[in-house]
Amino acid sequence: MSLKDTVVADDAVVLTEAEAGAAADRAFGVRCAAEDVATAVAEGADAAELAELCDRLVTLAKDAERLR
Fold first, then answer.
1. Within 13 Å of residue 49, how many CA atoms lie on the same side as its CB?
2. What domain of life is recorded for the organism (predicted)?
3. Sequence spans of domains, the chain
4. pTM for the complete prediction?
5. Minimal CA–CA distance to 54: which of 67, 41, 64?
6. Is 29 exposed, middle or buried (0-12, 13-18, 19+ CB in 10 A)?
7. Distance CA 67, CA 45 (A)
8. Do the beta carbons of residue 15 and residue 23 sit within 8 Å?
9. Does an H or E element contain 8, and which?
10. DSSP string, 11-33
């Protein structure tokens, strides 16, 4: 696809609707996982539970940072 003679910047990244939706879904997953960690801390969760929740959060964050 050529962007010549358009108002879209040459260095712009163009996503399909599906790709944008998938990125938003991954970001939502990260937010939910972060909220789970915050809730667990507030409720006095033990170290093992917090470690598990943090591992999940890191996994989701790594997935969310890449574009497909």
1. 11
2. Bacteria
3. 17-64
4. 0.80
5. 41
6. middle
7. 33
8. yes
9. none
10. T-----HHHHHHHHHHHHHHHHH
> Distance of CA 34 to CAs 1, 10, 30, 39, Å?
38, 35, 6, 9
3 pLDDT above the threshold of 70: no
- CA-nearest of 23, 20, 19, 18 to 60 is 23
Q: Distance (Å, rounded) from C-alpha 56 to C-alpha 51?
A: 9
Give the separation between CA 3 and CA 54, rounded to whole angstroms. 42
Query: Which residue has 């790709």 as its token pair?
Result: 19
**Distance linking the first and last C-alpha atoms of the chain:** 18
For 12-63, the pLDDT digits (tens) are: 888 899 999 999 999 999 999 999 999 999 999 999 999 999 999 999 999 9
